[in-house]
Amino acid sequence: MELTDRLMTARQVADYLAINGRTVLKLVSEGTLPGVKIGNQWRFRKAMLDAWLDDQMLGVIPQHLQRDETYSAPRLRLNFESCFQPSHILPALTAESKSVAIEALAELASGLGLVRDKSWFVGALLEREQSMPSAVGNGVAFLHTLDRHPEQIARPFMVLGRSLSGIDFDALDCRPTHLIFVLGLKFYELHLPWLAKLAQLFARPEATTMLLAAPSTGAMFDALGRAERSLFPGNN
């Protein structure tokens, strides 16, 4: 049966990737494999799986299908404060489209001196979106560039935009995206655990609810820090 861009089940993904079904469930539960939980079932989009495989082959993300089972991801995780501050948050993003939201967040990063060329950053983020949509469901998207250009990134960073009304980011669960995280990654491996940590943290819908309910930029920053410490104690 030919696979299209329809939603796939965990069993279909296991067959497609030629791995054990338990491995699929483990990877998606960790936030490593792109998927969304609808009810009590995981669903996947083939285009996102293909882009994820490409990233593994290119070394854009750490390779998980062949990793040693003794590998301990938490020891590589860096805390968010190393790349993220209250000034990195747009608490009331008014953009109504994906491209305008990306432009606004790139403008924030540029204004903070985190990127040297805003136009390059916008184009690189949009290029990545065309390859693999960043919205993972639960109202959250994690954007980053496909390739690393250390000369364009002043220092690794994360910025966050919050849209209370929501924006169509082509999410797996077909719901609006409210929290848009943009990662400015200078190197391939060292800072990629931020992405894995975010994915695992926001696999829980209550994390999104908590940030949406925060009354101020400072409250959003504190809420994210508390969520990080509760999920990853001893790794901050």
* CATH structural class of the largest domain: Alpha Beta
Number of H/I helices: 8
Count of discrete domains: 2
CATH superfamily of the largest domain: Mannitol-specific EII, Chain A
What fraction strand? 15-25%
Number of strands: 8
Distance between the termini: 46 Å
Strand order of the largest sheet: 4-7-8-6-5
The helix content is 25-40%
What's the architecture of the largest domain, going by CATH? Answer: 3-Layer(aba) Sandwich
- Content-based structural category: alpha/beta
Which segments are poorly predicted (pLDDT under 50) over 5 or more consecutive residues?
Answer: 66-77
Biggest sheet character: 5 strands, mixed
- Radius of gyration, whole Å: 17 Å
CATH topology of the largest domain: Mannitol-specific EII, Chain A
Overall 3D form = globular
Order of helices and strands: EHHEEHEHHEEEEHHH
Overall pLDDT confidence: 82
Structural notes for this entry:
- With 236 residues, the protein is an alpha/beta fold.
- It has 2 domains: 64 residues; 155 residues, Mannitol-specific EII, Chain A, CATH 3.40.930.
- The chain contains 8 helices and 8 strands, in the order βααββαβααββββααα.
- Strand 2 and strand 3 form a beta hairpin.
